[in-house]
Design a protein that fits this description.
This protein is mostly helical and 593 residues long. It has helices spanning 2-5, 15-28, 33-45, 53-65, 70-79, 85-96, 102-113, 122-133, 136-148, 155-167, 171-179, 186-198, 202-214, 221-234, 237-250, 256-268, 272-280, 287-299, 303-315, 322-334, 338-350, 358-370, 374-382, 390-403, 406-419, 424-436, 440-453, 483-499, 515-523, 526-537, 554-566; strands spanning 461-466, 469-474, 544-548, 571-574, 579-583, 586-587. The chain has a six-stranded mixed β-sheet, with helices on one face. Residues 501-593 form the DYW domain.
């Protein structure tokens, strides 16, 4: 501060000089909040008023650039008599990038009331804030204002609109704005691709990525995160591996966000070895990396390894997050470790000060349900400090279905009627329980109710990837070009399985039909058709990976165990509930499914 102390100058004539000196000093303290405060104090001592638009402008700019407290910036802003557009924009930007973006919208509204004309930088900042708080109406209002003011055709504004619509879940609107852009830069491509990825639209994500590459736009780390997210959702391992090769080629494997997305891809495609390899090769790991692998191991049925990794993470000094504990509790649930699960749940609160969220309570209900303690699970739900949501009650309904607790299932279904009355899965679970008890009149009554209420059952499907293309099969599917060969393989599979002692689990066909018809129905489940297709389409010994939108039934589970032994194949099935790694006649889930 010697420079400031050496200028012991007073009088009105010297103020312009002092003002310039203060501005120069402010611009030089880009990395020090302490130095900023010294300069601010110096300006006050030298009589530079905060009402000066020029001084206020640079004070606020420096503070926002330092990610300083916005309360401090607001006090300065309130004293400026006539802030210019740069200062208004800086305030909006500061709040948009803060943890509380709401004031950015208020400042923009105040700016409009004061008839301050916006410029090209105003809307990107305000739209960023609106996207953060997911205020659809306010965003649409700003979009209309940009059209009225003639800013809609500016690339910065268009990029922000694409990001906004994607972030609030309106991917089609984001795509519409994108298609209207004459200059589609990398930011625009990333925003529209990410909009579809965030909203669980993997097919559209991959289609846009292919078009982007075809048009000669080079992807970056943000693009790859979206691509890997979509590939993981579809179980498109080959496409994910191609993205991995590209990352290695251009050095993006060092990008921590992209590397974490890659780790997540391999875990969600059931390739745990490659997930662990990516983790081991990380130059800089983080709690996100550790959490991704812990959750990946847990959902793949390697609960003990997940818990060992959690212990190692603690030894290395990483502090677990609430998401880490979701993975830990999930591991305990899917491995039948009820006591360990409750111990970790207690540690999470007492040792780490993490207040349980609905996801943690969901894991605990799932843990009790899988252990067959459905009545205890029901009491646990009723005693929860949080209001149970539909997912919690549906978890209990699923457990009642597995363990045959019809009375409790009916009570649980009554709760679900109030929360999500038209969810088809709830009708199906209760219908299955009635059918298992041979209460056919109740089954027919439920189905009549579904028809009356317009509730449609979600059809089961299985996805497999072959030569960069995803093939989809449904029950009894005969639409594939290789249908004849597929059904010939299905017949051969059934013949060989019977030689191994396989007897169809006909209790899974919950319909009032003859036994022979039940066996036929079981033979044509979508995952069996998918396996038959892969057996005729890939060399012996090739792993088969299936993504199924519903839970694997007990008959298919038994059959796939035997198929893995008879055909000497590793078969990985990702169903709605978990992963199943079938090898040599056994499954990683140890039948806790």
């Amino acid at each position: 501060m010697n420079d400031m102390q050496s200028h012991n100058i007073s009088g009105e004539s010297t103020k312009p000089y002092i003002l310039k000196k203060c501005i120069a000093l402010l611009l030089s303290c880009a990395s020090s909040t302490y130095k900023f405060k010294q300069v601010h104090a110096f300006s006050i001592r030298r009589g530079i008023p905060l009402s000066s638009p020029e001084m206020g402008k640079y004070l606020i700019f420096s503070l926002v650039s330092l990610s300083g407290p916005m309360r401090y910036a607001q006090k300065i802003f309130n004293q400026i008599q006539f802030p210019n557009i740069f200062t208004w924009n800086t305030m909006i930007r500061g709040y948009a990038e803060s943890e509380n973006p709401y004031p950015a919208i208020e400042i923009h509204n105040k700016m409009c009331v004061n008839s301050v004309a916006p410029d090209t930088h105003t809307y990107p900042f305000v739209l960023k804030a609106i996207a953060k708080v997911i205020d659809v109406r306010e965003g649409e209002k700003v979009h209309c204002v940009t059209i009225r003011n003639g800013f809609e055709s500016l690339v910065f504004v268009q990029n922000s609109l694409v990001h906004f619509y994607g972030a609030i879940g309106q991917a089609e609107d984001a795509h519409k704005v994108f298609e209207e852009m004459s200059d589609k830069n990398l930011v625009a491509w990333n925003s529209v691709i990410n909009g579809y990825a965030l909203n669980s639209r993997p097919n559209e994500t991959l289609t846009l990525y292919r078009r982007m590459v075809f048009e000669g736009v080079k992807p970056d780390g943000f693009t790859l995160v979206s691509l890997l997210t979509a590939s993981a959702e579809l179980g498109a391992l080959a496409l994910g591996r191609r993205a991995h090769v590209f990352m290695l080629k251009v050095g993006l494997d060092k990008n921590l966000h992209a590397a974490n997305a890659l780790l997540d891809l391999y875990a969600k495609c059931g390739n745990v070895k490659e997930a662990e390899q990516v983790f081991d090769e990380l130059e800089e790991d983080s709690v996100v990396s550790w959490t991704s692998l812990i959750v990946g191991l847990a959902v793949n049925g390697f609960g003990e390894r997940a818990l060992e990794l959690f212990k190692e993470m603690e030894r290395k000094g990483f502090v677990p997050t609430e998401i880490t504990f979701v993975g830990v509790l999930y591991a305990c649930s899917h491995c039948g470790l009820a006591d360990k699960g409750f111990a970790y749940f207690e540690r999470m609160q007492k040792e780490f000060g993490i207040k349980p969220k609905i996801e943690h309570y969901g894991c605990m209900v799932d843990l009790l349900g899988r252990a067959g303690l459905v009545e205890k699970a029901y009491k646990y739900i009723t005693d929860m400090p949080l209001q149970p949501n539909a997912v919690i009650w549906r978890t209990l309904l699923g457990a009642c279905s597995i363990h045959g607790h019809l009375a409790l299932a009916e009570m649980t279904r009554n709760h679900l009627k109030l929360l999500e009355p038209k969810h088809s899965g709830d009708y199906v679970l209760l219908s299955n329980l009635y059918a298992a008890e041979r209460r056919w009149s109740d089954v027919h009554k439920l189905r009549r109710t579904m028809l009356k209420e317009g509730v449609k059952k979600v059809p089961g499907h299985s996805l497999v990837e072959l030569r960069n293309r995803v093939h989809e099969f449904v029950m009894g599917d005969r639409t594939h070009p290789k249908t004849e060969a597929i059904y010939a393989m299905l017949a051969e599979m059934t013949r060989l399985l019977r030689l191994e002692g396989y007897v169809p689990h006909t209790s899974n066909v919950l319909a009032d039909i003859e036994e022979e018809e039940k066996e036929t129905a079981l033979a044509y489940h979508s995952e069996k058709i998918a396996i038959a297709f892969m057996l005729i389409s890939t060399p012996p010994g090739t792993s088969i990976r299936i993504v199924k939108n519903l839970r694997v039934c007990a008959d298919c589970h038994l059959a796939i165990k035997l198929i893995s032994k008879v055909f000497d194949r590793e078969i990985v099935v990702r169903d709605r509930s978990r992963f199943h790694h079938f090898t040599n006649g056994s499954c990683s889930c140890k039948d806790y499914w």
